[in-house]
Amino acid sequence: MPGCFRLGWQHGLLDEVYKARDVGVNSFVLFPKVPDALKSPTGVEAYNDNGLVPRTIRLLKDKFPDIIVYTDVALDPYSSDGHDGIVREDGVILNDETVYQLCKQAVSQARAGADVVSPSDMMDGRVGAIRSALDAEGFNDVSIMSYTAKYASSFYGPFREALDSNPRFGDKKTYQMNPANYREALLETAADEAEGADILLVKPGLPYLDIIRLLRDNSALPIAAYQVSGEYSMIKAGGALNMIDEEKVMMESLMCLRRAGADVILTYFARQAAVVLCGMGSA
């Protein structure tokens, strides 16, 4: 992914956050690259209070107390199987056992100072379980941004390569959504609202503008869109080959997500786009 790097939790990360804040970006999402030695079938490293993500949250909140820290709640970075859930011997994903682990992960992140936890696993019932777990530990003010409509998309490739998080076998089609099915997004919206989600997210972004609009028209909650690694990389590649004007296409793509109804946009272009929006010229 051109212009994107795995950052050290103490050095490169702080510099990147400082530069982003300087142009008005104040919200950050953390995705860890976990050493293979710390991965296991049940992903227990996910809720290690001294693990990479909790350490990073504490550091960021200490250095930049006013920023908003979003976290990813899922087992795939910590799983030796590379799946978002615990895998049974016959290859079946264990929903309830996974949700139990996700609750511990979310509480660990909240304890470290996370403002918003973001379950991206697509297990059934996880939003309600996480909300109950957070409330039971006194984290009533920690919000939940649910990956409500996360599709089994081919646009995730560059991200999975960067974090070495491809499944070790099979695919994620039994728990992520079928790209051909838009109606399931309505069922997921109703479920996540009922379970206590604060923000509903659609992933990917541009290929799913109709889903963003569908959620916008059927929910009063804030809608988020994730402009994923494949979308970002295609624009970068087109610009590098002088086939498109990278900056103009970048800004148009973000405008389209906003027009479709997104209140929040997760994008790897955040700092580059903010430079343009600040009137500071090309990034």
Proportion of beta-strand residues: 5-15%
- The helix/strand class is alpha/beta
End-to-end distance: 17 Å
The DSSP helix count reads: 10
Mean pLDDT score, rounded?
93
Q: H/E series, N to C?
A: HEHEEEHEHEHHEHEHHEH
Radius of gyration: 18 Å
**Strand order of the main beta sheet, please?**
1-2-5-6-7-8-9
In short:
Helices cover 41% and strands 14% of the residues. It is built from ten helices and nine strands.
Can you describe this structure?
- Pathway: Porphyrin-containing compound metabolism; protoporphyrin-IX biosynthesis; coproporphyrinogen-III from 5-aminolevulinate: step 1/4.
- This is Delta-aminolevulinic acid dehydratase.
- Keywords: Allosteric enzyme, Chlorophyll biosynthesis, Chloroplast, Heme biosynthesis, Lyase, Magnesium, Metal-binding, Plastid, Porphyrin biosynthesis, Transit peptide.
- It is a single chain.
- By secondary structure, this protein is α/β, with parallel strands linked by helices.
- It contains 10 helices and 9 strands.
- The strands form 2 sheets. It has a 7-stranded parallel β-sheet. The protein has a two-stranded antiparallel sheet with strand order 3-4.
- Helix 2 (52-63) runs parallel beside helix 3.
- The protein starts with 11 loop residues before the first helix and ends in a 6-residue tail after the last helix.
- The model has no long low-confidence stretch (mean pLDDT 93).
